[in-house]
Design brief:
Layout lengths: L1 H13 L3 H4 L1 E8 L2 E8 L3 H22 L7 H8 L5 E2 L2 H16 L9 H4 L12 H7 L8 E4 L4 E4 L12 H15 L5 E5 L2 E5 L7 E7 L2 E11 L3 E6 L4 E4 L2 E4 L2 E2 L4 E2 L3 E8 L2 H26 L3 E6 L4 E3 L7
Helix pairs in contact: 3-8, 5-9, 8-9
Bound molecules: adenosine monophosphate and magnesium ion.
Amino acid sequence: MRRFWLLLAIAAVVAPSPAAAEWHAREAAIMGTRIEVEAWHEDADLAAAALAAVIAEMHRVDALMSHYKPESELSRINAQAAEGPVKVQPELAALVARALEVSALSDGAFDITYASVGYLYDYRAQQRPTAGEIAAGLPAVNWRHVEVDLAAATVRYARAGVRIDLGGIAKGYAVDRGIHILEQHGIRHGTVTAGGDSRILGDRRGRPWLVGIRHPDDRARVIARIPLVDAALSTSGDYERYFDEDGTRYHHIINPATGRSAGALRSVTIIGANATLTDGLSTSVFVLGPERGMALVERLGDVDAVLVTSDGRVLYSSGLAPR
Ligand code: AMP
Ligand code: MG
């Protein structure tokens, strides 16, 4: 046994590792989060160009969809759509329509109009709305207030006071765009990550990628490692943007029915084919809670989930359940 390990150690020292030289990586801070891109290719120049193109795409999506940027198309919708249809890029109209589909799937748990109340929270300044302010804002929270005309590429609000925010789905969309761009460059093995949303292209040169799910209270602790090939994985957690007050955590995932932070889960990880879907669903399941959330995952069939409940249990969907 000992000899065996010794042999392995020597092999690791003397064996040339040409494959390692062909992995290329880049990081950036975009969309208020950390972007990581990795790609394998023999041609270093081609790989560098692919990584640069992915980063440029992230900036493009951010400029289109950021609510922080007053000149973004999203901000223009929020300013004008209650007065009439606002013409936007077809891509943005399509993503808003996709978000409305996730609302329908999740029985309204996912709702981009959460922002009508959600914007009253300031997590950095530890500010939250009063019960009266929430009650005044809630009538504007309803995904059915948003009308998308895909043919005309317009978005319209059915009433005043509505605001949308794509924070629950745009990072996943940007990740899908990034993977598409890697593919266009001829990359067949890579990953794109934006905060809690990742997608894997191919395998890790003969092995699956191992993606870790962190402990909600300790980013250094991994509660599960999931082997993935050609898949997307999104995690939503109550530890991303929050403040604690008198033993209550006020965090960034808002139950559209109450205007308050969703309470029954600490984190939700969804695994599926594309990151736009897993991103939208991780936020949805977080709001739905363990029972209704897991029921949605099982009903959809082509996604899996790992949930961490507020009382510390880890729940797996049937496709992942340890045998
Ligand atoms: P995620 O980390 O993907 O769960 O996204 C959380 C972000 O989604 C928040 O920071 C908000 O921008 C947005 N959000 C919060 N609550 C909801 C909700 N009920 N439906 C859709 N988006 C939401
Ligand atoms: Mg999400």
